[in-house]
Amino acid sequence: MDDSGGVLTPVRAARAGCMAALTACLAAALLWALLAGTYDVSLDEVRRIIWAHVSGNADPGLPKVREVIVWRIRMPRLLLAALSGMALAVSGAAYQGCFRNPLVEPYILGVSSGAACGAALAILYPGLLPPVRVSAFCAALTAVSLTGLMARSRGTTPPVALVLSGIIVGALFTAGVGIMKYLAADTQLREITFWMMGGFHYSGWADTQETAVLALPAMLCIWLLAWKLNVLSLGDEDARSLGVNPGLLRRLLVVLATICAAACVASSGIIGWVGLMAPHAARMLFGPDNRWVIPGSALLGAVYLLFCDTLARTLGQAEIPISILTSVLGAPYLLWLLRTKGRELYGA
């Protein structure tokens, strides 16, 4: 490869520069999101509030209301949005690399429908089941486990069978959500509907920490396995000839990617398009090498979801569900990608 050695080749330098630029964009997006909102906060106040909490030295000159807005409301929400964008994008890149299909996204194996069914059950029967977050996460993992069991045949799990099983399991859990909606009272139906639209409006530090504990180690493991994901993209026979067990590697990556997606869905509801768009954009910037695509996807997903979340809470008097914005912005992007690079990406 052109960048496998220690020498800083032009390709490697260009990729490193692009990665640095994306990191700067993420920092700028986070700062803009901290300042944006119906309650005006100055840049100096944001700096002083963050420093006071990081250093542990209270600043008596800071108004309490601004400290609450910046540190207790906006900061955990924005960190969770960035973390969710990273996890969904990395999950999408891993799925697309595993199945060698550019149209695969994090919810293809039933993650979203399983989480929605678990959340609906927890909302409908709050005294019998764990909290909504826990129920959604467990149901998402259950759905993917069922998908894997259905797809397994004669000791192997063909990628096509796995995707088709995911569609079937997703349809079953979606039907379960429909039943829950039919049985729900008006207030419960409203809560289920708003949860499925996705959003970070109730996010706190506990939500951010719980999601980070699950998503960050899984993302790190996927990145460490990125070179094997490159080998997997050559095909199963070539992967075996290079000493890689494609079946075992694919199962491991699917588990890690599912944990990323399930952790995000459990904390913020169903947010589409991020895991489909960000990996494509990363490949356009960095090429097919997953050692660069994985971190590039993470940065792009974080910036995109921060941007959408900031628009969702500032465009109108009432907050717009973030999944609406990601769909409105994501659909034209995929159409443009299909029209301009369809033959290169999809063979059409």
Based on the model shown, name its key terms.
348 residues; globular; 76% helix; mainly alpha; 14 helices
Describe the protein's architecture and organization:
This protein has 348 residues and is mainly α. 76% of the residues lie in helices and 0% in strands. The protein has 14 helices and no strands.
Elements, N to C (H/E): HHHHHHHHHHHHHH
Distance between the termini: 28 Å
Coarse shape: globular
- Residue-averaged pLDDT: 89
The total count of strands amounts to 0
The biggest beta sheet is recorded as: none
Structural class: mainly alpha
* Beta-strand residue fraction: under 5%
Unreliable residue runs: none
* CA radius of gyration: 21 Å
Helical fraction equals over 70%
In DSSP terms, counting alpha (H) and pi (I) runs of 4 or more, how many helices?
14
